[in-house]
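To the wet lab folks,

You asked to see what we're planning to order before we commit. Fair enough. Below is the target structure as tokens, and below that is the sequence we designed to fit it. If anything looks off to you, flag it before the synthesis order goes out.
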């Protein structure tokens, strides 16, 4: 059986004998932890727009990025991206569906990347009205690139599979959105 190439073309019954249902009673502790992280601390279980719900939850991590600063934030996001490969891959395996919409760890990483220009340019330092506006712009930019998937994002979304494939298109969307955010912040 071949794996579906993207979230929009697959159904929950494509690979799973349980129709995409996850049986927690059959999981060990590490599987449960991996699943919890893979579904973005539960945000990916939103019945509507789980990717948007996961990206929205990341906005509440802004205080963490502020407290860490630019370079430590880049290090944490890089580590999250690296560990996201096995997290997303194993969560997909547990679900029995490649790149299920409920897997949003990749959105956590991609959305977090858009905060880097704000940190580097000193635009994410406190919570005033302008900072909150910039956070909203960062959210919208990532969601646009993640949903629209311009080339080469769409190519990799459809061509690369497994945990790396799940992560890579969102990393590219995060990079594109971060570049757009950087240009916006320089321009204003």
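Sequence we intend to order:
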């Amino acid at each position: 059986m071949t794996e579906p190439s993207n979230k929009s073309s697959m159904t929950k019954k494509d690979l799973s004998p349980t129709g995409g249902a996850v049986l927690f009673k059959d999981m060990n502790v590490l599987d449960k932890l991996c699943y919890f992280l893979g579904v973005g601390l539960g945000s990916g279980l939103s019945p509507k727009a789980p990717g948007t719900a996961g990206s929205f939850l990341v906005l509440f991590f802004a205080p963490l990025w502020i407290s860490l600063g630019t370079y430590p934030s880049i290090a944490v996001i890089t580590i999250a991206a690296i560990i996201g490969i096995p997290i997303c891959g194993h969560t997909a395996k547990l679900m029995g569906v490649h790149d299920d919409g409920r897997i949003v760890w990749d959105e956590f990483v991609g959305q977090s990347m858009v905060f880097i220009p704000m940190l580097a340019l000193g635009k994410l330092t406190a919570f005033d009205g302008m900072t909150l506006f910039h956070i909203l712009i960062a959210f919208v930019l990532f969601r646009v690139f993640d949903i629209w998937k311009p080339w080469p994002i769409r190519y990799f979304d459809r061509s690369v599979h497994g945990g790396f494939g799940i992560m890579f298109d969102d990393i590219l969307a995060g990079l594109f959105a971060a570049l757009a955010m950087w240009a916006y912040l320089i321009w204003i």
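Structural context that might help your review: The CA atoms of residues 58 and 108 lie 6 Å apart. Residues 14-187 form one domain.

Thanks,
Computational group
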